Structure formats: structure tokens, C-alpha cells
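FW: tagging you since you asked about this chain on Friday. Here's the raw sequence from the shared folder, copied in full. Didn't touch anything.
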Amino acid sequence: MSEIRTVTTLRRKRDEIVSSIRLYERQLEQARADLAHIQAAIRLFEASGDPKKNIPRYMDLHRLFKRRETWAICKAALADKGPITTIELTQEPMKAKKLEAGDKVLARALNVRLVNSLARQELRGQFQRAGKRKGIVIWRLPLEKL
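HL: got it, structure written out here
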């Protein structure tokens, strides 16, 4: 039994519309990606490097601190407060630069950077592990540095 011509035409039109919708969705995804890249580029060019201003969350931390500045801050904090955890030690450079203490993304990025650096400095004898508190390493200055 043959189909009615109207039904065949409607099915063909439906398939055409479905394929057009898929094409528009792909173009929309591409347009959204392009927009995100343009917005990121604008934020990069608007960034002044001044830590008091709003810093993009993905900005390189090397721009925030001078060479060896984080070490000077961390050593001063350990000398003043004694042994403290990595998380508490992360807050010290943020306080010194007057960065937002509640910015968890920035704190996490700085924490990861400090953990790697502290391990290297431990091998050089600049810092020592003093144990763990709730799974977080406690750092202290070597006894001869005190």
C-alpha cells in the first residue's frame, strides 16, 4: 500500500528541519566557544598586574610575587608563628599582598605552587616537615635557622 503524498512530504520536511536544527546547534556551540575566547582575551589585556584590583582567576601567580618574595614571607611567618600547616602558610603571602582571603581558587593555586616549592626547599634544608595535622603537612624552620 503506498503512502499518502502529504505524509511523505511532511516526513521529508521534518528531516530537513531536524538537520537544520543540528547545524544551528553546532554553529551555536562554536559561537559560544568563540565568545568565551574573546572574553578571556579582553580580561587578559585589561589586567593591570596590580594585586589590589580584580585579578582573573587563571592569571599566572608569577606576576603577583617578586623573585623569592614568597619565601621571605613564608620564612617570616614561620619565624613569628612557629610550625604551621601548608594551608595556613598559603594565607600569609595572600595577606601580605592584600589579596582576597576568601578566594578559594587563588588560594588553591598558590597552595599547589607552595607545596611543590616547599618540598624542593626541604631537600635544600630551608624548611622541615614537623608532622601532619588532619592530613595536612606542618612546616617549620630547621632548628639551626631559628
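FW: The chain has a mean pLDDT of 82.
HL: agreed, and The two ends are 97 Å apart (CA to CA).
FW: great, closing this out.
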